[in-house]
Structures are given as structure tokens and as C-alpha cells.
Amino acid sequence: MASNITISKGVFDFLKELKRNNNRDWFEAHKTDFKKHQSEVKSFLEAVKTNLNHHDDIEKMKLFRIYRDVRFSKDKTPYKSHFAGSFSRLGAHLRGGYYIHLKPSESLLATGFWDPNKEDLFRIRKELEMDADEFRKVINQKELKETWGELRGDELKTAPKGFDKEHPDIDLIRKKQFVFVRNLTDKEVLSPSFLDEVDKSFKSIRPYFNLMSEILTTNLNGESILE
């Protein structure tokens, strides 16, 4: 497994400067620095992907662009003050994804189901309506909980249409997202062991992904819906 690749302090120093000088003139003058740090982050993400593929199947890695889409935003600063990357699991059988966000004092790892489509969200809710015991058992597993804490995500204020607001598992059924987030200190990100810690964190979420993949590839009778 790749383990000797790190995030340098220079990456965070550059992002701090970018935040203070978020304009095109400064960025163009420091384009070479940006390219160097972007390349470093990309190498780190490639190493994360290599490690993930030892215990998962990753279809795609994405390094997000530094340029902001300001067309519909009140904030017209042209650049993001962070680097970020995501990893999508392979094919229709494996659901869920991984995310890394690198920003001074605001870095995090995230995983789960950020924006499930309408069909997937309904299927998850129907499963929880029928029986949420296994779901609760998985999200409360010791290693997962010690690493990631509580399940997070936006939720409705009341029951979704067609669901009983008095249902004993309505706290889960109301959710629109099913994600876990681990906040990171700068010291953790810049540590020589950060790559291994990322892999360990992502590996601990597998029981959750296994359950959700099973739910999202079957009907309520447990029969596969994949061709």
C-alpha cells in the first residue's frame, strides 16, 4: 500500500495566501505555485485511490477545479480556498462515495450518500419504514462510530409524503442525506501518517456501504433489481 505520500505545509500556506488575495491578478502571478500544489494534492489523491482499491473497487477519482462558478452566487471571489477530491465506487452493485476536503482549519473527510436520487431516497425510506434495526446496528458499530460519530445530513421538518409522522424511526426516514463527516485538524492533515489514517477511516465505513448497497440493489422482498 502507498504510505509515504504526504500533504506538505506549503499546500496550506498557498491556500491561506489565496484566501487573502482572491483575485485574478494575484492568481495569475502565482500560477506556477498553484500548479505545483495542485499536482501534490493530485498525487496524494491517487495514493488514496490506490489504497482504496486494495479493499474496495473505485470507478473514478475526481480532483475538483479551483475555479468557482459565480454566476448564481453573491460571493464573486473567483477561486476556492480549498482543494477537494472524490472517489466513486464501481458500477451499479457498489453504492456510496468518498470525499476529501483540504482547507486550513476546515479540512474534513466525508462519506456516504450526499444527494441520492428520488428513486434511491424512496427505497431507503421504505426499508427504514419496514425495519430499521439492522441500519441502526450498523451505524452504531464501535469502530465506525469512534471514527465518524453520528449519521448526518439534511432532513425534512416533518414526515415525507406517504409516511407516518409517528413512526418510531421517523428520525431516519426524514433524512434527505445519509452521510458521515470527520473533521480534521491541520496537524492531522500534515502528519506523515495522514494517508494511512484516511484509508483506515474509509475502510471503517464499509459495513455501512455493504448494507446500503444491498438495500439499493434489491426490492423490499430482497430480490435483486439489477439486470
The CATH first-level class comes to Alpha Beta
Low-confidence stretches: none
Calculate the terminal CA-CA distance, rounded to whole Å.
Answer: 34 Å
Query: CATH topology, which one?
Result: BirA Bifunctional Protein, domain 2
CATH hierarchy: architecture = 2-Layer Sandwich
The number of distinct β-strands equals: 5
Structural category: alpha+beta
Strand content: 5-15%
**Tally of contiguous helical segments:** 10
| Gyration radius, rounded | 20 Å
Strand order of the largest sheet: 1-2-3-4-5
Largest sheet: 5 strands, antiparallel
Q: How many domains make up the coordinates?
A: 1
Global geometry: globular
Can you give the helix content as a percent range? 40-55%
Average pLDDT level: 95
SSE string: HHHEEEEHHHHEHHH
Tell me what you see in this structure.
The protein has a single domain (9-216), classed as BirA Bifunctional Protein, domain 2. It is 42% helix and 15% strand. The protein has 10 helices and 5 strands. The chain has helices at residues 9-20, 24-29, 31-52, 118-130, 133-139, 142-148, 170-173, 186-189, 194-203, 206-216, and strands at 58-63, 83-89, 97-102, 107-113, 178-184. A 5-stranded antiparallel sheet has the order 1-2-3-4-5. It starts with 8 loop residues before the first helix and ends in an 11-residue tail after the last helix. It comes from Flagellimonas chongwuensis.
